[in-house]
Design brief:
Order of helices and strands: HHEEEEEEEHEEEEE
CATH architecture of the largest domain: Beta Barrel
Number of strands: 12
Radius of gyration: 49 Å
Distance between the termini: 158 Å
Strand content: 25-35%
Shape: elongated
CATH superfamily of the largest domain: Rod shape-determining protein MreC, domain 2
Strand order of the largest sheet: 1-2-5-4-3-12
Number of helices: 3
CATH topology of the largest domain: Thrombin, subunit H
Length: about 280
């Protein structure tokens, strides 16, 4: 045996080494794919990664488009819902305002038994020029409105007088119009005068109270009402309040500048007094 190893020991070692390498290679190839398969995998791997990235990007794009489309549809539905809700709110506010207006009118009729017949009308146009101050209403002769009827707001403040009347429309000369003239009385002092429009004051929504005695005791803030004399207008309708007192050029009489109680520029609805009982 010793002689055999001495003579052939080198070949035995070489054979053992070859066997070890073979076993190692077999272990590697058995645990992994074949060389050709591995080479194909190495070459395809970048393309597979690119394809996966593109597929994921396209899938994300589809999901984004779907989400965006859904959000747009939802947003449009919400806009329509908000528009409907705003319309409901506007109608509710208009109803509340109208109810309050008619409640004020009912209180007025309880206090003023002489005012027996009203017709509510919407203001469709305001007109103020150098020569006139008027309102156009959406009611007319078909509902009993006539020229000369008195027009008030829901609190009983004087607005003006019906100047023209058609079937379904009418125009009102406001109390500051230069053609307006009516008997007036100062509530505190009982001084009588004539409230009438003035060219220089109309643009400022003011009017004059003329034919006061020179030594009248009016004060700024005094309330002025319709006198009801001659029966053309109901008595006690509020015209406005005294802003200042002036003496005319002759020095024999005074006049007052009046601020109307009603806000003519803000009127949207008025009430036409179609009939009343004369109370002085």
């Amino acid at each position: 045996m010793k002689n055999f190893l001495k003579q052939h020991g080198l070949w035995v070692l070489f054979a053992a080494a070859v066997l070890s390498v073979a076993l190692a290679l077999m272990s590697v190839f058995s645990a992994n794919s074949s060389p050709f398969t591995n080479l194909a995998g190495v070459l395809v791997s970048p393309f597979r990664a690119g394809y996966t990235a593109v597929a994921n990007w396209f899938n994300d794009l589809q999901n984004y488009y779907k989400d965006t489309t859904d959000l747009q549809a939802e947003n449009e539905a919400l806009k329509q819902q908000i528009a409907r809700m705003e319309e409901i709110i506007r109608q509710a506010e208009a109803d509340v305002k109208e109810n309050a207006m008619f409640r004020d009118l009912m209180n007025l009729t309880k206090q003023r038994r002489d005012l027996t017949d009203f017709e509510a009308a919407m203001v469709t146009e305001h007109e103020v020029t150098n020569w006139t101050s008027s309102l156009t209403l959406n009611k007319g002769t078909s509902l009993g409105i006539e020229v000369g009827d008195c027009v008030i707001d829901q609190y009983g403040n004087l607005v003006g007088v019906i100047h023209q009347a058609g079937t379904n429309w009418s125009t009102v000369l406001t109390l500051v119009d230069t053609d307006t003239s009516l008997g007036a009385r100062v509530f505190r002092t009982k001084d009588l005068g004539v409230a009438q429009g003035d060219f220089t004051l109309m643009r400022e929504n003011r009017l004059r109270l003329d034919y006061l005695v020179a030594d009248c005791k009016l004060l700024a803030g005094d309330l002025v009402e319709t006198s009801g004399l001659n029966g053309y207008f109901p008595s006690g309708l509020v015209i406005g309040s005294v802003e200042e007192i002036q003496v005319d050029d002759s020095g024999a009489a005074s006049y007052a500048i009046l601020v109307p109680e009603v806000n003519l520029d803000a009127l949207t609805e008025v009430f036409v007094i179609k009939s009343f009982e004369i109370v002085t």
